[in-house]
Amino acid sequence: MNDPNGMFIDAHGTYHLYYQYNPTGIVAGNQHWGHATSKDLYHWVNQQIAIFPPDAHSNIYSGSAVVDVDNTSGFFPHQNNGVVAVYTINTPTSQTQALSYSIDGGYTFRPYSGNPVLSDNSSQFRDPKVIWHAPTQQWVMAVAYAQALTLGFFTSPNLKDWEHVSNFSHHGLPGDQYECPNLVEIRMEGQKEPMYLLTISINPGAPLGGSITQYFPGFFNGTVFTPVDGAARISDFGKDNYAGQFFYGIPGDRDQISIAWTSNWQYSQLVPTGPSEGWRSSMSLPRVNYLKNLSRVGYDLVSVPYSLSPVINTTSSLVQKTIVGNGSVRLDYSSGASGALYFQINITDIPTANISGTANFTFLSSRSGESVRAGYFLAPDSAFFIDRGNTRGFDNPFFTDKFSTSCPYNSSASSYTWRVEGVIDRSILEVFIDGGESSATVTFFPEQELDTLVINAGDLNPGVTVSAAVHGLDSAWA
Ligand code: FRU
Q: Considering the entire predicted model, what is its pTM?
């Protein structure tokens, strides 16, 4: 699988996640829309394939889904829970936008007989994301003219007839292609009026290589998107977070929930997968997102994991440790039900902004010595790093070892603090720094499982406190 598609929440609170799916192989190709549902965003039930290609030369590429409550489309004369999927039909010579509709709440779909609904005589025109714009009472579509590095905005009263209203072109990082745009109304901290967030996934040509997603906080008046400034911002400082999408159906003044694909097109088709497992790739944690104005960078997309309470394992041991000065703590989590862990590490009581030292945490294989390491360098660097290089299961020139980001302290009344939380799940590490002001998604492939967490705060100034909390996580398979 690759991109998440068609994400929406229905009136019963069920989250629907569709995804780019090849049912006949473990590389991309023969794309269908797979489908999974969840009540809590952690326990998922895989459903039947939702959308099939119309013929052997076509693929169903990425797109979005909406609930047509008022039957604007005319597909749903007898119900208010009809679902319309808007996606790209890819053929060897063309990419066009098409509709399928579902009268059973998103489980089975019929193609619209008038497909395609939008075409540009192009083979590089894809990934429609549709939202309802209440002030102008119309549907809005953002769609990528991929190799022209341009998004087109279209509006429609009925999801079938689309009018071109504006373009958003050559903003931020160009990369080689624009893909998978998302437009969502989103809460802005400390402000009553929500703003809009536009995301554009670029591939290839990301700064670290391959694919990554950039975002633009801004304003949208129903036809034109205006970014707050000219800055380019990246949603993740790792390399394995792509094509993320926001759930349709969450009110615009709230935090928005996203899920992304945890891979990178530079190596997604090559990373190891067990022959007995028969699958490759997975999705990120569900993330809660909002905008915040940070003094150092201006508007920032803040992302943290959606509440993990449905999977926090209350029977497995919970570790709460305070490490003062010299110390480290070793945790064996191989007995946890799923092998996945949530961790939180806080450095507090940093007396001045100039104090130096490091605090590291290492996920280690006690059998092979392989590891994934991460940590924080205090002054003068104020930077966080992740190093996945000491794992031996996958070697590739583009499988970059090390990532870092700058992350200054947060100051409280008399001292400074720094904190990180995250989830490690067998071959994915997601970290969220300082309440989600920065985040990273990193995949890794050790030959032996990483079964031990070592936290080392040995060379910190004696007054500085390091505390760690670690919880086992239950399996996500319902
Ligand atoms: C992004 C992407 C989309 C396309 C889909 C094909 O990862 O390349 O542009 O619709 O994947 O699977």
A: 0.96
